Amino acid sequence: MPLYDVDQLILHPNKENANVPHGPEATNLTLAERIKKEYALLSVFSEEVADAHMRGDIHLHDLGFIDRPYCSGQSLEYIKRFGLSLPNSIAMAKPAKHAEVLLAHMVKFAAALQSNFAGAIGWDAVNLFFAPYLVGMRDEEVKQLAQMMIFEFSQQAVARGGQAIFTDLNLYWEIPRHFEDVQAVGPMGEYTGKTYSQYEHEAQRFAWFLFEVYREGDGSGRPFFFPKPLVHITEKFFRTRGHREFLHHICEVASEKGNTYFVFDRGETAKVSECCRLSFKLDASDLEDAKQPWKMRYCALQNVTLNLPRIGYLSGGDDRSLFEKVEEYMDADIQALWRRGEDVRGWARYWAMIYGHVAVALERDAALREATMVLRYEDLCERPEETMRGLLAHCRLDADENVIAEFAGKLQPPSYYRPDFSQGELAAIEEETAAVILTAGY
How far apart are CA 335 and CA 341, in angstroms? Predict the structure, then answer.
């Protein structure tokens, strides 16, 4: 690295990242990032992907942290059940007995995780999982705990380069459907004998007081930039008592201090949010997994963004050229995922790119749409005779019932293998393909 560049980095503040202060830790971080960025572009990603990043066609996020996953979603239930035992720490702690101790464990764990991830650490259903510890506490005590949480996270300038801990708090006014019948974990990591649906009042009190603190601001009245409060808005939210007052409360905070983030969980889906999002359907398997919420933790390995304004500019107003360039840049995007080991997400995005192209082509071209029949393999297996007759009719061929009967008995879903996808991989597939599969009638 040229001595001139080193001199500029040490003497002048970092203008690339507003979260990084100017000091010895920050300059150490910036110098290390410069080296790792070059290493990533020359040794990790292919020449085509690296060139696409350098041209600005795509953006590979956090190349300076190429040896770390991007961000992580965590659950308080993990430290509530198992206490705090960090790598390289000279002491471990048993599960917390008091709310203040649980908060201390949470902050320390988040600080340690910042050393292993490039982006934010998100905590799911924070007010709900704290609720068993709040039983019997006066409003003044609950608000004091809310103040401690926000000030502890915002004042801990111990993360990468001397930054504050990049933290997202996922909050619910209602009890999320997937946690309604889950046995609540309380002090000392023991079950309380109640389900989380029975702690709605305590969870709501904590959420309300958190936003009171956000509205008041810090000691000088300034907004808190971290931790970020993410409020989930679901259909159930609007059926929960007090939702109107709470919505007015958090909207006032949004207008006065700008803190509130709104996460819209539409349909039978749930999301865990930090820098990125994990979306999953609330089917039977998800509800079963939610019975052990300490296992509901995950990370995202890589974040890649297409430069859509650049694509629009380079296409020069030509729609065909626009979609060709989107596919070209998506190819580089998918290669970047595969390079980082996110094979399943890469293949899911590849599938969505191909079938998304088909859907757009059919929508734009009436003649092509009339000449095309989209045939789902599931329909062919479930209703073989009916589907084959429809296919032959579309092709304007005579239907031979003997041939149809012969092949109908041979069609069945594959039983010789079952993909062994993890819950995180299934969620990645759903997230990448959700918009496209709707065009196929799913």
Answer: 10
Q: How many CB atoms lie within 10 A of CB 7?
A: 10
Residue pLDDT, tens place only, 230-273? 999 999 999 999 999 999 999 999 999 999 999 988 777 777 76
Query: What is this structure's pTM?
Result: 0.75
Both 19 and 42 in a single domain?
yes
| Contact indicator for 58, 309 with CB cutoff of 8 Å | no
pLDDT at 360 over 90: no
Please determine, for residue 211, whether its predicted confidence score (pLDDT) is greater than 90. Answer: yes
Q: Give residues with Cβ within 8 angstroms of 60, minimum separation 6.
A: 40, 45, 49, 53, 302, 304, 336
Tell me, yes or no, whether 336 lies in a domain.
no
Distance between CA atoms of residues 52 and 38, nearest Å: 14
- Quick one: 293 and 180 in the same domain? yes
Q: How many whole angstroms separate alpha carbon 84 and alpha carbon 248? A: 37
Same domain, 131 and 268: yes
State the CB neighbour count (10 A cutoff) for residue 124.
Answer: 29
List all residues 6 or more positions away from 48 whose beta carbon is below 8 Å from its beta carbon.
332, 335
Q: Which amino acid is residue 9, in one-letter code? A: L
Tokens for 90? 């000279």
Cα 295 → chain centroid:
16
Q: Show the DSSP H helices in 217-274 as ranges.
A: 243-256
319 and 392 together in one domain:
no
Instruction: Tell me which of 132 and 321 has the higher pLDDT.
Output: 132
Considering the domain architecture, whether residues 221 and 196 belong to the same structural domain is answered as yes
How many whole angstroms separate alpha carbon 318 and alpha carbon 308? Answer: 14
Say how far apart CA 332 and CA 326 lie, in whole Å: 10
Give the model's confidence band at 418: pLDDT under 50 very low, under 70 low, under 90 confident, else very high. Answer: low
Residue ranges making up the domain that contains 322: 3-64+307-330
Residues 115 and 237 in one domain: yes
